[in-house]
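RESIDUES AND SHAPES:
===
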Amino acid sequence: MAKLIDGKKISQEIKDELKEKVVALKAEGKTGALAVIQVGEDPASSVYVRNKKNACAYIGIESLAYELPESTTEEELLKLIEELNEKEKVRGILVQLPLPSHICEDKVIQAISPEKDVDGFHPQSVGAMTIGEKSFLSCTPSGIIQLLKRSGVEIEGKHCVVIGRSNIVGKPMALLMLRENATVTIAHSRTKNLPELCKQADILIVAIGKPRFIGAEYVKEGAVVIDVGIHRDENNKLCGDVKFDEVEPIASAITPVPGGVGPMTIAMLMSNCVQSIEEKRR
């Protein structure tokens, strides 16, 4: 029976560590705020934004909420970002994605100052990560690294297969696993013989956005399985990209959905915010 990798517990540990760090930074006179921008009223986005505000309150940093109507123009949003880039106390800027279709996400991401890019999406942050320089790391992939390390999973020398090549999870995930000295294969929708390839993985990271797609035939006996997906099934129940009941008996360790990768994303966002405050006025 697989060990359950408890993202709720590990994310709580990280937030408690950050809370202590924030107290120490305040004693040194270092403070800062996270600006969270939401355009429109997408229900899922509203939940994520609320969770981010709650996490800020928990670790002791201020959050500034900018809830803009769906009709906000690209120009208005870019002007707000420009103002926040200039604000001394704002140490992190987060624009909740997805944005309405009339706003170009790439333009918005690139408008955020790399010094305040706590999501780790700016091309400068991604470039620095690629060549191993210090930067804000993309929150979900860096959260997965913490899940593995804090669960005692050895990464070095292991074969990791990442299914998915998105800019938010798949690509940065592969780079961070390389940084930890894993041997990495990236698989995607055009990969041939996907089950055979996945069966070679010591660590299988699934980020394909298809509910319950990965079954037992994709998983090697004793592999560690990380499920990044989150969906609602036909019964409105949360599920991931992996058929948990099928895969759990084969794996040595597995993340549940919910309660696996999800909580780690916000914990690592908080970690980036604290890093930004720490690096201010050194």
